[in-house]
Structures are given as C-alpha cells and as structure tokens.
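Chapter review: from sequence to fold.
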Amino acid sequence: MNQGNNFLSHVKLLLFVCLPALLVTAVAAGEPPLPGSAAVEQRQRLKVGLALGGGGARGISHIGVLRALEEHNIPIDCIVGTSMGSIIGGLYASGKTPDEIEQIVGNMDWGFALSDGTTRDNKPIRVKERQLKIAHAGRLGVSGDALGLPLAVLSGQNLNKVLAQINQENLAIRNFDNFPLPFRAVATDLATGGEYVISKGSISEAMRASMSVPGLLEPVELDGRLLVDGGMANNVPASVARELCGDIVIAVSVGAELEGKETMTSLLAITEQISSFLTWGNTAKTIESLSVDDLLIKPDLGDIGSGSFSRGIEGVPIGYAAANTALAGWKNTQKMAAIGNRPVAAGTAAPVPIISFVQLDNNTRLDNEIITAKLHIQTGEPLNLKLLNQDINKLYGFGLFDSVSWDYVQNEAGETGINIVAYQNPAKRNYMQFGLQLEHDSNSDSNFTLGMAYIMSNVNHRGGNLRLAGSLGENTGLSADFYQPIDMQGRYFINPIVKYQKRELNIFDGNHKLTELELDTTGVYFGAGMNFGTKGELRLGYERARGRNSVLSGVVFEPPDKFDLGELTFRAVYDNLDSYFFPRSGHRFILGSRLADEALGASSDYKQVAFSAIGARSWGKGALAWRVHAGYSFDDAAPIERAFELGGLGQLSGLATNQLIGQHLGFASVTWYRYLAGIEQISAFGGASLEIGNTWLREEDIGFDSLRTSGSIFVGADSPIGPLYLGFGLAEGGNTALYLYVGNPFDFSDGLLSPR
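The token string follows.
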C-alpha cells in the first residue's frame, strides 16, 4: 500500500515539473510562424524550376542568366533545357559554375564540333593520297537500284566526341536525378512530333538528341525512338520544369526572330529560318502559359544568329543584363533571395569508374577483331578518354564507318565497362562520288576534268575496298582499283589495279608550244606493301601496260608510235601534314623508284628515282611552307611518257602548266600565307611564294647556273569541293601568267611523287 502511494507521489511531482513546458510548447505550436524565419521559410517555400530554351549559338547567353541568378541569391531546385539550353543547363546541373561553363563553351572549337571530318593526321596514307587526285564534291549512297541521300548534312560524329569531352566527369551518372540539381533534356519524337523528356542514360547523348536540328544533324535513336531537336515540340520547356519541381518557373527564351529574305544567303541561314518557323508557335504558347508568379527572361541578342557560334560568347553579358533587368521587376525576387540560393557544390562529379570489360556493338561487315585491334582500352584502370578519342578518330578516319561512338555500360555483376558502337548504314556501304578539277593559265589552254567513282566499301570481313572510277576531260580514264588488307590489324595489303588513261602532253621550245601529244595507256598494276599506322606506307609494285603516242597538233617528231611499259616500282611515304594544300604543321616525305627492263615487258631499259619533301610551321594566323622535289633518270634513258614535268602555279609560277619536261628535275620553294576569313566550311588565305628549279634533258646540263627563279602571289580557299586558287606568277625572263585552279596545283604527274 505504501509502495502504491509512493508511486502516485512521483507521478504528481513529474507532472508538476513538466506541465508548464508542455503548455508552452502547445501554445507555440498553435502560433503562426514568425516572418523571415529561415527554418519556417525552408519548410514552406515554393520550389523554383529553371527552363532554358533553345536557340543555337544564342543559347550561350544562358551563362549570363545563371550568373545573375546566383548573384541575386535565387534558389534553383531543378533545371530543364532544350537544344543549347540542354548543354548549358546540363553543365550547371552537374556541378559547373557559370565561370567554368563560360570557359568551356568559349574554348570549344565549334567549327570542328559541327563537322564530321576527322583531321588529316587520323587518315591512313591511302585515304590521304586519294583526296589529292581529284576534289570530290560529295557522295551519294547506293542501295540496290536507288540512290540514298543522307539523313542530314552532318552525322554528328565530332559533336558526339565534344559533348562527351565536356561531360567526362559525369558520364558515369546514369540517372539525371542524381546530379547536384535534377536535370531533364527535351527532344522531339520524330515519329509523333511530341516532346520526349530524357531523364536517364548518357548526359552527352541527351544533349546531342536535344539539339539535333532536322536536316543539319542526323536524328538520335534513343529508347526506341528517333529524336530530333526539342525546339520542334517545346522550345522553352517551362511545362517540364513545373512538372519536375517548380511551383514557380523561371523561363529563358533566346529564340531568333524571323529574318527577311535578304538574309537567306546560305544553307545554314535557311536552316535557321525553318527552325524559327517550327519553334515560334510553341514558344508563344509557353509564354502565354506563365503565371504571374513566374519569371520570363528574354535577352535582346540582336543579330547574333543561331548559327553564329563564333559570336555566341558575346551573348553572355547580354543574358546577364537581361536577367538583372527582369529580376529587378519581379515581385518574387526579394522573397526568393531571403530563402538563399543553394549553390551547386564544386567537386560533386562522380568518381571515374574502373573499366572491367570492353564490349563491341559492331553494325558493319568487318570482323570484330579488325575494330578491337585499333583500340587501346586498358581494363582494371579508369578510362583514359584522351586515348579513347584518339582511337575513335583513327577508326573513323579509315572511311569505313558512318559513326563510331562509345558509352558506359554495366553487366549483371554491377561492373562498369565500355561499349563501342561502330555503325555503317547498309544503304551507304556502296556509294558514288563526284568531283572536278579545273586548270586555267593565261599561257596555255584551259583544262577541265570531271570525275565520278563508284565505291564498294567493306566488300568482305577484312575491309576490302573496290573503287570503279572514271574521268572525262583533259585527263580521261577508267580504272578498277581493289585494295585488300591481309591481316586483322590492316598493316599488310595488296592492291591490284586495271586502268586506262588518256592525257595530253605539251612540248615547248622556250615559251612557244611546238607539239601537243596525246598519250593513251592501258595496263595493269599489282602492288603489295605495309602500313605504319596512319603516317607511313611502304609498297612494291609491278606495272605492265601498252600505250600509243599521237600528235594532235604542231611539229611532228619521231617518238615511238607505240610503247610498252614493264616496271618494278618502289615507294615509301611518311606524311603527317595537317593539310596538303595549306599546311600549318607537319611533314611529308616520299622516296620512289622504278626499274624498267625488256625482260619485264618494257620497250626499253631505264631506271628512275625521285624524292619529295614538304614541311610547314605556323605563327598565329600565318604559316610558312617549304617544298623540295627532285627526279633523276639514269643514263638519260627514260622515254617521253616517263618524263618529269614542271611549270605552273607553285611549280615555277609564271610558266604554263607543265611547260618544262626532262629526264631530270630539281625544284624548291618557300610559300608564306595567312588566314584571312572563314565562312561555314570555307577558309580563305592570301600569300606569296618564291621558287627555283628546272628540268634537264641531259645529266651534264644539271647545274645551279641553269636554275630558273620565279614567284607568285595568290588568294586561295580550302572548301568542301577542294582547294581553290587564283594567282599571278612571274618567272625569270619576264614570263607572267594568271592562274585559276580548282583542285591540286601541286600534283607532280610522274607517278613516283604523285599518288597512283
């Protein structure tokens, strides 16, 4: 009984002590929150979603908007981006600051990103030299009896690499909710025309899909859908931002206004206008849907076009100013600032995963081993992205693929690996190429050659290539050229060729053309050799041909009416020039020889050796290139069809094209040129050259006192149809000439220094 009384006494004492505290707590709980309380604001505040619209280069102005939002301490809870907005927004959501993003975008080579070609250094010798013979204006895929046009101007090969490079720290994050800020990229489903919101996978692939402007960039196949630029469906994705996290939406519209017809002067300008048509309607609807609590920021970007990537960085301060102006008039600015921004933490990128395996998704005829032999991915180590990009560049440079890409994958054990995707469109495996070459100088006739080729690539599992080519004009010919790698690494090869060629050869006496010959040759060639990466090649060959000389005009003299060629040939090439026509770095060396003997089928015995060297170095926009060429015929015995030729722009300027012929050749030049301007894929240069050289009929005539000097001034352009030159030459003795070239003015046609 006493124990029960004691227990009740303790309970009463406990209630007496605690009751006042409980009453205070109850009263406090029933009171309204104190204004400005950080804890209460954090509990009650509305979330803010940021929607960054598409607009191509104009979207770079989003960087300035982000900078202003941070300075005003505006909280951002999620980001949604369309097209360029997906790039800027994705980088910010993944942890980059506005300053870092500005540096990344400002340093990007947009000309490279928005092109498909790899650098010349990544192409094998065979591909490099094929491009020297005739300028190819384009190619058409052939499937069955139909021609296949490309899905777009660009496949996006280089853009894929650039986007992977700038996102390399976050490529292993596969769920976009796991970024410091949740992120979405908006694309358009090409089958339905509706928006498709990308929330997982590779962030670089999501950005690529979101900015795939129809006609300019090929669609991206993702999640069973064919995706194009998100601007077609939702250019300012405020609705997606609101659904993801935003009670309040800050929407940024950077789309271009419609332009007048006077600006429709290029394919890019027309593409921009069509894009504006398609995005204008949905952008207007988005703006109308914004509530009074939302904020619209619309930078006045003036004449910065959606394709003006070289000027895109100019939009950053404009975006910054527009955001500051909009925030100054927004009723929620002070409320949001009181909450406090949650800055994206630096160093939040996922750790680079250890690569446990490599798998290949091979969508070509090639054996897997041919592709994997060119990859140097080390398992058990973090991915070396620089080395992987080098491997992909060289694979793509072989010209056997429409695209080569990669992504992280995981197996059932949870290990991370690399998946290489090599793709060749079956409709483009066989294709046609068209090209042209134009030569005109004021001292001789104009020469025009139109070329066409039908290429069957990957005719077998080792990458065999059959090229059927024809040309009509000054150089008329037909050829069937089969190139077959022997081993899986592609180091050893055989190269049989059957060909017919008809070309003209002019014989001059001083500056007067005496005779115009026509050389017809029909024959076969069999070559075999080895490649040294993409920079070197050694080959031995045997050529057997039969020909005929015909005098078309002028003085008739007594060359053999018919001739036979039977030659053993040797050729060694090293070439790492960045460009053959306007080089800025690298070297090119060629050593060639031929041995003709009656036992080999030749009409006469003769031996020749030739050497060529080119080098270049650049300073800023200027570059200096030097060239040395030499040819020697033993015993002065080479027939006229194997004579060395010299003359024309860059080969003793001021003389007619191939005005000098002889048993021996010596030539050297120094050329300086400077980059002048660039428009889309055309780069213009201006320069001048100093040249010295000659040809000689007899060895005893060779000497420094017989060398001729000359020089030139020119303007030129590197273009999709090949090099263009307009020049004036002045040679020793007062010889002058005006030149117009489309194609290669430096093609020494002796067969030893020039590609076969």
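Two observations follow directly from the output. The first strand starts at residue 48 and ends at 52. Confidence is low (pLDDT under 50) at residues 1-43, 343-347.
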